[in-house]
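[[Local backbone shapes]]
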Amino acid sequence: AEPGQSAWGNGQYGGFFTGAFLNSLKREIRLSSNPSWDSIMKRAEAPIEVLGRIQNPQTFVSVNSINANTELQTDNQCDGIVVNGKCYSN
């Protein structure tokens, strides 16, 4: 949510922005032959009304391609966390 606004959610749906994002992602994959992160996020950024209050989501998209020759780590190969295919040990 924008500064000064609350981000809303509940026990049934979780975060309302997360729900909007997932719905946008599913729609983009289902309807587009060439899905794009910009389209997904633009749709997910729509204002969310909850109990008469508005939540204006904020997003930032930064997508980088990776070299096809780069060997990526997976979660089960890493004893820490995996970020962008790289293992960071605890």
Remarks:
- Strands lie at 9-10, 14-15, 48-50, 53-55, 81-83, 86-88.
- The chain is about 25% helix and 20% strand.
